[in-house]
Amino acid sequence: MLYRTAGQFKTSYEADQALFPVKQDAFLLGFILVLAWVIFPLTASEFTFQTLLIPILIYSLAALGLNILTGYAGQLSLGTAAFMGVGAYACYKMITIMPWMNPIIAILLSGVFSAGVGVAFGIPSLRIKGFYLAIATLAAQFFLVWLFEKWAWLYNYNASGAIQVPNLDIFGLYVSGPQADSIVQYYLVLFIVCLLTWVCINLTRGNLGRTWKATRDMDIAAELIGINLMKSKLTAFAISSYIVGVAGALFVFMWRGAAEPNLFDIPLSFRILFIAIIGGLGSILGNYLGAILIVGLPVVLNLVPEALGIPLSSSMVEHLNFMIVGGLIVFFLIVEPHGLAQLWRLLREKLILWPFPY
Amino acid sequence: MLRDIFINPFVDMYEAPDLFLQTLWEGLVSGVLYALIALGFVLIFRSSRIFNFAQGIMVVFAALTLVGLYAYGIPAWIAVLLTLGVMFVLAVSIERVVLRPLVGQPDIILFMATIGVSLFLIGLGEIIFGGENKQMITSELGIPTGETLLEPWGGLLILPHLDITVVVVGGVLVAALLAFLNYTKMGRAIRALGDDHQAALSVGISLQTIWVLVWFIAGIIALVTGIAWGARAGVSFALEVIAYKALPVLMLGGLESITGAIVGGLMIGILEKLFDGYWGYPILGGNTETWFAFVLALIVLLFRPQGLFGERIIERV
């Protein structure tokens, strides 16, 4: 009923290829955008901004980057957190060397550095495949984190070895550092996330995206039909690492406020991989659904015992969190290995026919 | 700079042969442990194509269970047996709850499932036994703790008895595993399953039994490694780091190869100690052990994409 597609005729190929061939999809997206741009910022408290809205956006951006590489181009990577680190440190260095720089531009530029590093670590993918490649990306993970720790130039020879985000402003409005308002940071993150999502949707629909998908489905066959594998894999690594790097810069500058090298350690990589897989590999929407689940769940779990009046120590809650998240991951993989995005797709098919069975 | 890389380390090795031998020895000890963990991985991978990320957590979990049971007042050797029982129950329940419903899914899904399992085990272990660092019950298990001092060429070589035990027990365990795989019916079934799933199933090998079996063997290996490593570094979830070390071993040796796991483990154990001692520490500021093994494996893989002993990858369209 709600999702009836009857009567929406396509009279040209262009209309058929449009971003929203079904009108309701466009309405739905519009509704979500209004929610994100207007309703949430007006109603959210400081706590919601800091524990839910901003991290969900940043995590979904990182997962989007990983999804380009793993879901679209089929190259499994376990080094996402390290590339986030490259973005964060690059942004930090640019900001401290050139303090007059516009923070948005610095953040968007910092992705370029991680794209470069990503391509360098992506070169082995031309010869190594599958799990071997996954472990090879772990080389990036461990090496880069070690580098963040040992290369004192990166953190400006701080005694603490950590990077501290300075107060930055755009036309007098603080966007990062202790003086920044959450709502300003939220809007900035939202802007960048929307921008990059829009770019990604169109990239994955276009020529490049199809090349990636062909590489993912079978790289030898793709090569035989004339796809340049080197180009396809390395562009995937570059674009994925770019997005992940931007997410890393946002992660530190808009959310954490400070970063130590071990922040970018392997648990963060896995967290993002969880988001991408539970959300659905090869789907853009999935990243957001996955991030909502993985970021939101611990927050909710923390609130539940209090609400029910069960006295639990905070360490107990943390351990329970681990168990529940681990169990849920297994549960979701068993119930729907293709992720939450697939659930939405099924739901949509049902909605189109509802209330009739056929 | 070039001198630091190409000449000085070798001069150091020549001038202080005792230090060199000490480094080699330490490398050998950790190499045996890497090889053991890698064997657990390889067995599971061969029989079910599952890349078991939970292996490292199983090491910690086994060690924690052992120490925790002992803390409840159970005698040490009975605690070992009980821990083996727990690992068996774990193997059965993983097979039932996680693997069986996921048969036939893409590799990456199974891989993620094992990460889910490892998160679950971390939470469970910490809730039951607490998260703080614990002392391994070394002497209660009858593991010698003294040291033997040798003086080759007027230098000093320290061989802790614990490490000697680790090498001997590790060696015996590897030999026993190889004998099991080669000379028993069950072992042959495991290898058959690794070679060809369909063919193995068609001659009546039970997939479920074998899966439980390999996970249980991985559990036994985990317990042994957990005791050995726990005795050196204490028991806590920081131990899982050694499981990451087993990954480059797998890459280097080849994911399917048992020989590869052993040779790769020893190679990586020794080479990373040598590199850190003679190149990493003087030139790069130390702690290179976190990544050296990965980079080494990566370089080897560039020339042999299937690892040193892995099956030749044949791809068809």
TrEMBL record, chain B:
Keywords: Amino-acid transport, Cell membrane, Membrane, Transmembrane, Transmembrane helix, Transport. Its main location: membrane. InterPro entries: ABC_transp_permease, BCAA_transport_permease. It holds the Pfam family BPD_transp_2. GO terms for cellular component: plasma membrane. PANTHER family: ABC TRANSPORTER PERMEASE PROTEIN, BRANCHED-CHAIN AMINO ACID TRANSPORT SYSTEM PERMEASE PROTEIN LIVH. Belongs to the binding-protein-dependent transport system permease family. LivHM subfamily. This is Branched-chain amino acid ABC transporter, permease protein. It comes from Mameliella alba. The lineage of its organism: Bacteria, Pseudomonadati, Pseudomonadota, Alphaproteobacteria, Rhodobacterales.
